[in-house]
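In this supplementary section we document a worked example of the pipeline. Step one takes a protein sequence of length 366 as its only input; no multiple sequence alignment statistics are reported here. Step two produces a three-dimensional model, which step three serialises into C-alpha cells for compact storage. The input and output of this example are shown verbatim.
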Amino acid sequence: MCARRLRSQHLATPLPAASFPAMVTDICGLHAQVMSAAELAAAVRIDELPRGTVAAALWKERSLVRLWAQRGTLHLIPAGELPLYVAALSNRRFDLDRPWLKYHGLEAAEVGALIDAVGEALDGRELTREELGKEVARLLGDVRFEELLASGWGALLKPVAFQGRLCFGPGEGNRVTFVRPDQWIGPFERPDPVESLREVARRYLRAYGPATVEEFARWWGVQPKAVRPVFVAGDGFSQVEFEGRQTWVVDGDPGRHAPSSEDGPVVRLLPLFDPYVVAVRRNGARPLTGPEKDLVYRKAGWISPVLVVAGELAGVWEHTARDGQLHVDIRPFAPLEPEVAERSAREAERLAVHLGLALGMRFTAG
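The serialised model returned by step three reads:
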C-alpha cells in the first residue's frame, strides 16, 4: 500500500513541469506553514520545476490561493477549487463550539458579526494583520478585536477563511496581508457544503486511501462524527478490509490497482510539513514509535524533513546553504543499504540543482 500512496502522491515518478497545477489538485493542496517548504514539496514531485513557480502561481498568476484549510493549517489550494474547499470548510461552525467561544471570550452572535466585519474591512483593500484588527475593531465598536486579531496563529481569522471571506494577499516585507477571495480571484458561487465535503473525502481517499473515517477526520481536523455521514456505500465509496481494518476507498479509482513500475526502492527527501508525512502518521508497515516518532512529529505541531524509503519514514534530514553550496545531512533511523544511500545522494543532488547550488561535502547517509 505504500507503493500505491507513493504513486498517488507523485513521489514514485515525478511529473513534468507542465503538470504542476494537476499535482497540487491530486495531493489536496500544498502545506504552506513555511512557504519555502511548499516549493520544495512541489519540487520533489515535479522534475526540473523552475524556481519561483509557487510564488508566481500565488502572486502573479493567482492560480493558487493561500488560506487556512484542513486542520486549520495554512495550505495552497488551486484557485479554481477554492469554492469547493470553502464550501466543505463552511461545515466547521466555530459559533457552535462552546469551549472555543469561552476560550476566546466571545458569544455566538459575535462570530457572525466578525465574519461580516472582516468582509467589509477588506472590500477593495489589502490589509496587514494590524490594519485589519484596527478596522474590524472600528466597525464593531469593540476594541477587543484589535488585540484578538493580532495573534500570529490566526485563531479568529480561521472561521472567516472557512466562510470564504478571507485569504492571504502578497506580503509587505515580513508582514502578511489579507484580501477577499471573491475580489482576489474573481466572484464565485459556493456549492453545497455537504456534497463538497463528500468530494473532498473522495479526493483524500484517492491520494491517501484506503483509510478509515477516523483517519480522514484527523486529516481534515474534526471529530469523526462530523464527517461520518458523508461516507455512504454506493455513493461513490466502498468499504474494503485492509490490514485487519474496515477502510474506505473510492469506486473506480485507477490508482488502487495500478501495477508498480518502480525499479528498486523509491527514495525521497521530503521537506518540512510534507503532505505525505502528515497523512501517514499512523500508517505503513513500520509505524514510528518512541524517539524516532518524536524526531519527525515534534512539539507545537512541527513536522521535520523526512527521508522516505519505499514509502516508510526512514530518517530525518536538514540542509543549509553557504557560499554557493548546499550542505545536506541525512540521519537515518537504521543503517542504509548501499543502493538506498546512493539514491539518497541522488536526491540531495536533485535538491541542489533545484536551488541552483553545488552539493557540499557534508552529505552523510548511514
